Amino acid sequence: MEGLNRPLGAPPVPSVVSNPSDPEDLWQFPDGTQSSNSPQVQPSNSPQSADSLPSVDPAQGPLESPDLALPSDHPCADSPPSADSSQLPGTSQKQDVTSPLPLRRKPWRKAPAKDNKERYIAIGIDFGTTYSGVSWACSFDPENIQQVKGWPSANMRLQDEVQIPTQINLKANTWGYLVSKQSNPIRWFKLLLLDEQDVKQDVRKSSYLTEARNTLRSHPRYSGDGIIDLVAQFLKELWDHSLQDIGKRVDVDKLPLRVAVTVPAIWPSYARARLKEAARRAGIERPRLMGKTKLTLVEEPEAAALCTLHERREYPEIEVGETFIVCDCGGGTVDIISYRVKSTDPFQIEEAVRGDGKLCGAFLADSAFERWIKAKSGLKFDNVDEEEFRAFLQDEWEYTMKRAFSGKENQSSFAIRPPSKAMKKLKLKTKGGTFPISKDTLKEIYSKPWNGTRELISGQEKRIVEAYGKPPKKILLVGGLGASPYLYWQLHAQFHGNVLQPSQAWSAVAKGAVIAVLESTDDVIASMPVVVSRVARFSYGVQFGYSPNSLASFGQVPGDRGKDEYYFDPDGTELVRRMTWYLKKDETLDNRDPVTHTFSRWVRLHELSDIKITIFTSHENPPPFRRNNSVKLMCEIGIIALVPWETLERCTSPSGEEYRNLHGVLTMRFEGEPKWSLQIGQSKVERDVKVRYEGV
Ligand SMILES: Nc1ncnc2c1ncn2[C@@H]1O[C@H](COP(=O)(O)OP(=O)(O)OP(=O)(O)O)[C@@H](O)[C@H]1O
Ligand SMILES: [Mg+2]
């Protein structure tokens, strides 16, 4: 194929060209030029860690090309000087600067806020599998984080609860505490935002989730993508009540809102996007006179950690280098995460080792209680109808014994009041319609959540010792089950008194979400813990066309015609399609030093509208070289709106067609979900981009 004419003695071929048959394969290597001629970058599959990755040689890397130079007031402006502008991708062997590899920029600094006294209400929504809660604070009074209460309920006592059951009765059109205790509402629907294959094996089989799925079958409106509407329906109730409750204490209409919804740390991107979409449909972003409401996601364990560490920031154990385990024991899962204090002033923490989680939450105690009372207690429930039994469970277990049980000496036995019909055939003499339950029985009922939690903590402790040579300083217990006195005392004995249970353990996640929001304000940030780096839970990457000869130098396995896809790009160069991972699972992602991905490609104007960057994820460790079943298309980043066409370097083909060199840098940060920004051609600043997530 004939090359393109370029000004200034440019080479005859366009530098990077896509395979027109595959729109996903957009960013490829030019003909062979990246193989032995790109010594300045470390192959992405090298054993080096992300932190030790070398950066691009300023003389050759695109980051330093004049087109990509940053303005002097840009946070990254102190990058090395620009390269010779003739050294552009494809212009010579040396000029090949397209790199799929992670590059590290100069530390990113927070731009100073325009108004140091930003005034807004920060709202944190903890949307849990079994219970949800909302906390809030004003940006000008950040230490005063309050909880939404007064939940609609027929029972005055419940109105004072900080959390509300995540349940909806579609027939009766009731939610939360308004669902009558005799009815059988839909629960656990949060987990239906996940595709079935992404739900962990043990959770997938759980009767609670199966029941939710079955109930929804009779409501076709909520099947498939309709689940977003069901979640939105619940969130709308939660949101409307929260605004009303907050409105009793502060003039909500006079302040802008910033909202964070919590999301499980292990959720893939499409599920996060669905949750965000549900929050939008719930009206959270509804236009308000005081300005646009900002909506973000925050990971649940991170929120829990922010809250507990914030409360303890003055305690002597908060020392640089110390690690802490935060154990969020919920209704469904127990999630565990650990942080290391990086600096105390400002209070910066970093994720210490990869977190873990297991389906061993409070529901296991619920099931065990139900099994025991029906089959082993001696009570007979055959004549007790389903509604009465459900009401009995709520009154005598959920709100009472389950939460009060501590396993301490002074609690040798409990008395419950079963339905009188269940007591009829009882041989045992009982007092005034009560029935005793021994401490040992209750211990047995709690055994599964307790054992599961203990194993998770022990595993995490081991990883911390391996990584840092010493055990964690403290174990911080949060979540609903984390408020259990029994769990606390058991862990206290097992882990030598190093366990802490914050005073409001159950609302720690919602409060932490508020802290995450408040961190966006400069004058508040100094007093708040900030997570500065996280451990990647997935690998993130793109597809690239490599010249077969260059594979080895990029740490790729040799080409194999039986396994690889070979194809030709328009200039006749043969390429092998491979995955290129710019952030790998378990590597550290530091928002102050974000991961960047550079690209370069010659394009014609009419091709622009089809051009997008496709990001893939994989949970495999290490991630694969070829696109296998573990590789999921995560999102597509459209770039047309950002292209400063006229300013891009230009060349003309012999047939007179005009090409422009589309080159730029894609940057990824993490704020509860990956955040992308792009810099293309001469555009001086990174711009956030519109991302279309798969599955939404
Ligand atoms: N004091 C207590 N003792 C024991 N269990 C409690 C106590 N307080 C609340 N719970 C239980 O905690 C569970 C709810 O916890 P939480 O709200 O943290 O879970 P969730 O966020 O809904 O679940 P997940 O984190 O799995 O999504 C319920 O089963 C509730 O009965
Ligand atoms: Mg939770």
Structural key phrases:
696 residues, Nucleotidyltransferase, domain 5, binds magnesium ion, disordered N terminus, elongated, six-stranded antiparallel beta sheet, binds adenosine-5'-triphosphate, ATP-dependent protein folding chaperone, 13 helices, 22% helix, eight-stranded mixed beta sheet, alpha+beta, ATP-binding, single chain, nucleotide-binding, Actin-like ATPase domain-containing protein, ATP binding
What does this structure look like?
- This protein has 696 residues and is of the alpha+beta class.
- Among the domains are: 217 residues, no CATH class; 224 residues, ATPase, nucleotide binding domain (Nucleotidyltransferase, domain 5, 2-Layer Sandwich).
- Helix content is 22%, strand content 24%.
- It contains 13 helices and 31 strands.
- The strands form 6 sheets. Strands 11, 12, 13, 14, 17, 18, 19 and 23 form an 8-stranded mixed β-sheet that branches. Strands 1, 24, 27, 28, 29 and 30 form a 6-stranded antiparallel β-sheet that branches.
- It is elongated.
- The N terminus is likely disordered.
- The site of adenosine-5'-triphosphate has 20 residues, from helix 7.
**Unreliable segments of 5+ consecutive residues:** 1-115
**Please, what is the average pLDDT?**
79
What helical percentage do the residues reach? 10-25%
CATH superfamily of one domain: ATPase, nucleotide binding domain
Protein name: Actin-like ATPase domain-containing protein
Keywords: ATP-binding, Nucleotide-binding
Pfam families: HSP70 (PF00012)
GO molecular function, one term: ATP binding
